[in-house]
Amino acid sequence: MAGLLKWLVLAMGAACAAIGVFHLALGIDSVPGEGAAGATVDSRERYYGAVFLGYGLAWIWAARQSPVPSTAVRWLAGIFLLGGIGRLLSMAVHGPPQSFQIVLTVLELALPPLYFWLSGADERVADAAGGAR
């Protein structure tokens, strides 16, 4: 399980960092189903892209620790879950978004429980092996 956790944390970080770079570089053109927007919306999209890039780098940082810190994984997964809850709130207020956004919502609600469940695996293995933390 510990090896799986490290791989999943690294994969999440790489995916989030790549998505962040994509949104930072393309601005509003990176959003499926959206047409042209003004400078304000494009600026906001690029800003959030930079924040998401940083979020992805935080996942990568966690994956590079030995053992992978369970507290960091739980916090990062919790933030991801909050994003999914935010999307649900948006759907309740404004109706369904473009279909790809619905897929993202499902991932943002389904993946955090997996990370919460696995979050301590690497630390448990280190403790069992007598490793120091």
Can you lay out the helices and strands and say which pair or pack?
Elements: H1 2-26, H2 39-63, H3 70-94, H4 99-118, H5 121-128
Helix pairs in contact: 1-2, 1-5, 3-4
Descriptive overview:
With 133 residues, the chain is mainly α. 77% of the residues lie in helices and 0% in strands. The chain has five helices and no strands. It has helices spanning 2-26, 39-63, 70-94, 99-118, 121-128. The protein is elongated, with a radius of gyration of 17 Å. The model has no long low-confidence stretch (mean pLDDT 93).
- Shape call: elongated
Number of strands: 0
> Strand fraction band?
under 5%
Helix percent band? over 70%
Could you state the order of secondary-structure elements as H and E? HHHHH
Unreliable segments (pLDDT under 50, ≥5 consecutive)?
A: none
Give the C-alpha Rg.
Answer: 17 Å
Span between termini: 18 Å
Largest sheet: none
Distinctive features:
mainly alpha, 133 residues, 5 helices
Quick structural summary:
The chain is mostly helical. The protein has helices spanning 2-26, 39-63, 70-94, 99-118, 121-128.
